[in-house]
Amino acid sequence: MNHDWPTAWGVPPGSALIRCQPEDFRVSEELGFELSGEGEHCFLRLQKRQVNTLELVQRLSELSAVPARDIGYSGLKDRNAVTQQWFSVGMAGRTEPDWQALEVSGEVQVLAVGRHLRKLKRGVHRANRFTLILRDLTGERTLLEQRLRLLDEAGAPNYFGEQRFGRNGSTLAQARRWIRGRQRISREKRSLYFSALRAYVFNRMLAQRVESGEWNTVLPGDVCLLHGTRSLFTCAEVSDDISQRSASGDLHPGLPLWGQGTVGARLLEQQATYLAECRDICDFLEASGLELAWRPTRLMPDDFCWQFCDDGSLRVEFSLGAGCYATALLAELVQYKEGSIKSGISSEQD
Prior knowledge:
This protein has helices at about 55-65, 140-155, 170-180, 185-210, 240-250, 265-270, 270-275, 280-285, 325-335, and strands spanning about 15-20, 25-30, 40-50, 70-75, 80-90, 110-115, 125-140, 155, 225, 230-235, 250-255, 295, 300, 300-310, 315-320, 335-340.
């Protein structure tokens, strides 16, 4: 779980409850591109409350008579929240249904409908906008404001959140049993298990960089990722320009999402202890044919603002790139616990 990973900025200066009610955790998906207005794929922007993404896929499938495999979404969003996200439904040769039939008071609302030429793929949206209410807040306001300003300027380690591993780590535990037993499972479970395994290896490697104080520093041999893009390059030696760009947040060090591909010798040497402990997972991911990918070690919140409210709560708003977890940022601000509801499935996605 996220709380178990080392923090970059020391002990959080306060504590709080999150998700005391769904409205305390709002997420709005920012698609990042315009719909073409034509094509066989119908795009729907839906708002949901206490419904997870896969449940909504099933409802779309039943209403449209389209197989679930032909329904696209960019990221998984939490059940216990109020979230807005896009879906695509392949309507080739089919009559479009009345999408308003999806609406259920207090659960699902249809916000927009359009057409596009291509199916919505995982992870293609630009960002998620979060509005969070932290209740039962403790800690000196001066120290909390100092930490908020630090996170705004310098970001936080880009850990995968606890949602990726399931409640109390249940998804990760099931995935590790799957490695040993190799039983047949559904495509949906395979995807969840692969994601949990890759996230665990990544978090272990990132924890090493946090402990050494090098999570936000480019080292020789690092793969660097340009902020807000999918562009990357290998940095053989660290120049003054690279150091300055890293310090400004223009680029970030990267660590692998494990799979088939080449990882530099220096990284293997740096991570030798952690990778030895995860060798069974790494070997399994490679044997399963997953391709190596890269993820930034640092997340940087955009348009970060906050307000201390009269009722003693703290309201924070920020945007994070696709694949980044709000809880990874919160873990550097407060020691948080779930409120009266429990966290469901992940807010993202590979």
